[in-house]
Amino acid sequence: MENLELKILEEVEKLQSFAVKNPLNTSAFWGEWQQVFTRVRLAKIAIKKLKWSGLLTVQQKKEADIKLQTLDEIENYLKELKNIALQTRGFSIFSSADAQQSEDDESDDIDIDDLFL
Asked: Of 18, 24, 25, 92, which cross-links 85 as Cys (Cβ 3.0–4.6 Å)?
């Protein structure tokens, strides 16, 4: 069990470089968030480019797939963090498609006063 815990701690330590450490309600947060997000996106692009190049062995392709999955998880974390930061500033996290659907749902409601007036 200790061996597993040590491996988990090692993995967490590796992932710490992707953690945004500045508080959500500061401008420093957005600068750091952008740097980390850009690093993740560029790493994903580089890995995909290497996979498509045909220069990787089968084993290296498997490792690249694992790295891509990890980067996808990190990217999701960063997007969730961004949404939370926007919420603390009073911005809605709903997409424009969600807002349009909400407006469409409201337009389907029939007001009883409209029927009689």
From this structure: 24
